[in-house]
Amino acid sequence: MKLYSRIKTRPEDFVVEELPTLKPGNEGKFWLLKLKKRNTSTLEALRVISRFKKIPLKKIGFAGLKDRFAVTVQYLTVPVEFEVGNWCFEFRNGRWVEVEAFDFTGMGFCVEPLGRVNRPLTLGDLKGNRFTVVIRNFEKNLRERFYRNYEVVKRYGFPNYFGEQRFGSVKSRDDFVLRYLLRGDFDGALRSYFFGKSSIDFWGDWRKLYKTLSPTLEEYEKDLIRGLMRGLTAEKAFRILPKNVRLMFNFAYQSFLWNEVLREYVEAKYPFVRVPFINNWKLSYYLEVHDIDYLKELQIPYTGKEYPPEDPVLKKAMSRVFRRYGVKEEWFDAQVGGMAVMTDGLRRAVVFPEGFKVLEKTKRSVKLTFTLPSGSYATILLRFLLKV
């Protein structure tokens, strides 16, 4: 039985609340807003707010992308030049509508102004996230496995892999748009964006493409295809995509490579178990760690250009992964499609959950709460605890 058949049988089974860094007051250049949503992605909610309230998407600050199939609370910033209010939106009969109130039983969200702050929110700008998760189909053998694996987590933490949300913000999870961009193949990048690796026999017939996809497209995606219909090159049409969407292509590919490096590192040093991940990928989790004081301080770079690794095992892991996927040094810090890509940075190899508690349990379910730092994923912890 797969992970989501146990932890997300309904959105209320997965509740996420951001722990914000900003505190609202009476002064400041930005409004701080609380966004509570159900069964809606963060980007979808932002697009609806932008469209209905005439606030440019790039003016809305947020700290992270929250799960779609969940109930989540997060925070937004908007410049004070825009009017804000208590807004609710619901998806009804195939379209978004503004409503007086949303009862959080369907697909929708509400926004509440909290006050003013002096700066906008940026990605990662939060203390962490508090999760409340219900695990269902929690039969005896799974229960025993769960508590046994939790003893490992208490002692050694768990590998800080990027979760599936990092790869679901683009159209397809089975291909990486950035790989085409790095080769200068903007036509291939657009094809990958809309169809992944699926073959399509009318690619290039932009009118037919527009007619086929139009009911499911965002406005900027329609604008992109209209640009192709007007004769824009693939590169110029690609730049019609909002920058935050274009950046997702970079984040997705770099996150995949980083996960692969961590997986190689774990397999090279520790007893491990492989656990299924999306797209037939695997994640490797250690079962025992002989150098936990070292490991919990280890940070793994994205490219190694600015932060060259000193750990010899890590060096070899990075070399193997980059060679396997044909990553070239000239790609690092490249300017592609109006954005800097393959930039370097550091990410902790290991994370320890805080405040882990069992709130309720029955013969068939258990309800948990725990807090993770910004950028760490509850689903990565749960995949190990349940090994599904």
Automatic annotation (TrEMBL):
Question: Transmembrane region positions?
Answer: none
State which Enzyme Commission number(s) the record gives.
Answer: 5.4.99.27
Identify a single GO molecular function assigned to this protein. Answer: RNA binding
- Which top EC class is named for this enzyme in its record? isomerase
Q: Which InterPro entries match?
A: PsdUridine_synth_cat_dom_sf, PsdUridine_synth_TruD, PsdUridine_synth_TruD_CS, PsdUridine_synth_TruD_insert, TruD_catalytic
Keywords per UniProt? Isomerase, tRNA processing
Q: In the UniProt entry, which residues are flagged as the active site?
A: 67
Domain (TRUD) ranges:
157-352
GO BP, sorted A to Z: tRNA pseudouridine synthesis
Does the entry feature the keyword Isomerase, yes or no?
yes
Q: Which family does the record claim for this protein?
A: Belongs to the pseudouridine synthase TruD family.
Q: Which HAMAP family match?
A: TruD
Q: What does this protein do?
A: Responsible for synthesis of pseudouridine from uracil-13 in transfer RNAs.
NCBIfam families reported for this sequence: tRNA_TruD_broad
> What protein name does the entry list?
tRNA pseudouridine synthase D
Question: Organism, per UniProt?
Answer: Thermovibrio ammonificans (strain DSM 15698 / JCM 12110 / HB-1)
